[in-house]
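Need residues for this backbone.
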């Protein structure tokens, strides 16, 4: 997004509701794998409950710090990480990471997003798609100019998405 122009982005849309984390920061030593799984399940259940089962989330976008913590913390007495356990129990949900969420939350804390990755619920407004111009030779190198224009993100069905700060 671009705040001065009032263009909202993926992480700062006012229509997307928050879910409060039970755990806090996942990368501290006091957080265990069960707490991470509980936070992930809580935000997924919030969407299903609030939409009365109409929307089933299929995407979770974690920050690299959250992804690393969830992937390295093991369930007690097993070799299974919190992330592996969550993926096994929710095979329909794609878990990915995006560094932009590291400071996207309130007071610049980490923010994870969960929702339905579908054109009916979420769309990027892109009036000019990525376009390259013919290459120009400058000395012994080629220079290729390119441009793209973005107009923000449209949450067509904001109830299909939730965010959680501070994990």
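Answer:
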């Amino acid at each position: 997004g671009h705040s001065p122009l009032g263009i909202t982005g993926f992480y700062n849309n006012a229509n997307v509701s928050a879910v409060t984390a039970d755990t806090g920061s996942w990368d501290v030593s006091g957080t265990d794998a069960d707490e991470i799984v509980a936070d992930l399940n809580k935000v997924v259940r919030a969407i299903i409950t609030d939409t009365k089962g109409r929307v089933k989330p299929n995407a979770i976008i974690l920050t690299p710090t959250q992804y690393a913590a969830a992937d390295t913390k093991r369930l007690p007495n097993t070799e299974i990480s919190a992330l592996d356990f969550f993926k096994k129990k929710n095979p329909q949900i794609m878990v990915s990471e995006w560094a932009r969420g590291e400071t996207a939350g309130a007071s610049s804390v980490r923010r994870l997003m969960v929702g339905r990755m579908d054109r009916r619920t979420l769309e990027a407004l892109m009036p000019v798609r990525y376009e390259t111009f013919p290459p120009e030779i400058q000395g012994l190198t080629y220079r290729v100019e390119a441009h793209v224009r973005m107009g923000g993100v449209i949450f067509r069905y904001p109830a299909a998405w939730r965010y959680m700060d501070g994990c």
